[in-house]
What does this fold into?
Amino acid sequence: MENKEAEIEQLKGQQQQQQVEEEEGPPPGWQSIPPPPSPPPPQTQPSYEMAQMVCGSCRQLLSYPQGTRQAKCSCCETVNFVLEAHQVGLVKCGSCAVLLMYPYGAPSVKCSTCHFVTEIGAHNRRPSWSVQQGQPTPPNAVH
It folds into this structure.
C-alpha cells in the first residue's frame, strides 16, 4: 500500500508541476497573434488664419480665410472685394464725418451710413491704413 501511496503522491507532484508550467507561459510551438493595425490618424484640414471685414452693403461682419480676394456676405449675398491694408485709403464722409475706407485709385466713395458721395482729392486724403498702424508702406503702393 505504501507503494500505491507513493505513486499517487508522485502523480500529484507531476500534475502540480505541469499546472505551474502552464501558468508560466504558453505551450511549446504556440505563437501570439499580433493585434490588428491601428487605424490611420484622421486627416486634418489645413488651418487658415481668418480675417474679418464689414459687408459694404448690409454692414454685417464677415469672416473669411486670409488671402481671399472676395468674400460673399451670407446675409445679403453681396460679393465684397477684399483689400489688403496697403491697398486701402481713408477719408471722412463729406456729410456725416464717418471715417470711410476706399480702394486706392477710386475717384470717390459713397458713405454706407448717409449715402453721401465724397470725392477723393488731395485735400481730404488720409494716410494709408498700414501707415496709421505703424507698418511700412510697400514700395508698390499708390498714394
